[in-house]
Design goal:
Length: about 325
């Protein structure tokens, strides 16, 4: 991240949500208020070089930054004479939401020490053997990596994997980091970047015949990182009203569609026998082990209703759990 990127990021955030920055002028942001907000952020971080260019905010610089914002993020910032900057019909796209989220996460890590008494973050299982920056560079430059991986039981029965791989993609899920990598012997393999990594070295040797990897295509039917030979199906899931709202904001999967809303969206008593308390969603996924683990974490607030073989799969595991007690 560069100081110029951070300045453009804050310009967009201030104009798109001015009240957060103390600007309440009917949705408009006069240039003086924008400059003042940037100055305040710079003053709060005056010893940090990352914020060094927030106060380089002449009208000419801001105009140039708005052109960059339009080009990069497809967001058009307009200017109303005697009122200020505004965004007409503003709606955060998925791409822009991802930029916001990743930038905020970066800033959290950047300020980890000074903010530690205000913010608690989840501990990641990332191995000390792994440095993500050169690994990302290896993916981008198509360099081979030399890896030694001591698997656990779920990794093909404590198998040790050693050799050169083409790194393809890094994915974080459930506080764990995974590297998707490929070679002729193992094809595409998911390495968990925790203590199972015994060594990982980035070589300067280019992949001779690199494969193309589209993460959105590869993971499109997965809940997590597991890809199996199972056929994806539409899984219908009943959801209790008090949790339905949560799944509307945080879908189970990108394919999630609402089949029916709860007839009673709010009920004081959580009577799970009340049919009016339940809504229904459906997702198109491989109903594999990761799907099972995801469903179980929602406790009694969800129930799989079809197809029958998936419902039976979940019920069989619940019966086994009950038998333990």
């Amino acid at each position: 991240m560069t100081p110029e990127f951070l300045r453009r990021y804050y310009i967009l955030r201030i104009i798109s949500n001015p009240k957060v920055y103390g600007i309440d002028k009917n949705g408009y942001v006069p240039i003086e208020d924008l400059q003042s907000a940037l100055d305040h952020i710079r003053a709060d971080n005056y010893e940090d070089l990352l914020y060094d260019k927030l106060n380089q905010h002449s009208q000419k610089t801001i105009k140039r930054d708005l052109d960059k914002i339009r080009s990069y993020y497809k967001v058009i910032v307009l200017l109303k004479r005697n009122s200020g900057y505004y965004i007409e019909g503003y709606e955060i796209s998925d791409d822009l939401k991802e930029v916001y989220e990743k930038t905020e996460l970066y800033l959290l890590h950047h300020h980890a020490h000074s903010w530690k008494k205000y913010v608690t973050t989840a501990r990641s299982s990332l191995s000390a053997q792994v440095d993500l920056v050169p690994l990302i560079n290896a993916i981008e430059q198509e360099f081979l990596i030399d890896i030694e991986y001591q698997g656990w039981y779920e990794d093909n029965g404590f198998q040790t994997i050693k050799g050169f791989f083409q790194p393809l993609h890094i994915k974080e899920i459930n506080k764990a980091w995974y590297l998707m990598a490929h070679n002729a012997d193992f094809c595409i393999y998911a390495f968990c970047l925790d203590d199972r990594i015994k060594s990982l070295k980035v070589s300067k040797q280019k992949v001779r015949e690199p494969i193309n990897f589209d993460s959105s295509e590869y993971f499109k039917n997965s809940i997590g990182i597991l890809k199996t030979d199972m056929d994806p199906v539409w899984v219908h899931i009943k959801v209790a009203n008090h949790h339905f709202k949560y799944l509307e904001i945080n879908p189970l999967h990108h394919t999630q569609k609402i089949v029916s809303l709860p007839k009673k969206k709010d009920t004081k008593d959580l009577d799970y026998a009340n049919k009016d308390m339940w809504g229904e969603v459906k997702i198109y996924i491989e109903p594999n082990y990761e799907f099972l683990m995801d469903i179980l974490k929602y406790n009694l607030w969800v129930k799989v209703v079809q197809p029958q073989h998936v419902k039976t799969y979940v019920k069989r595991h619940l019966d086994m759990i009950v038998s333990y007690y």
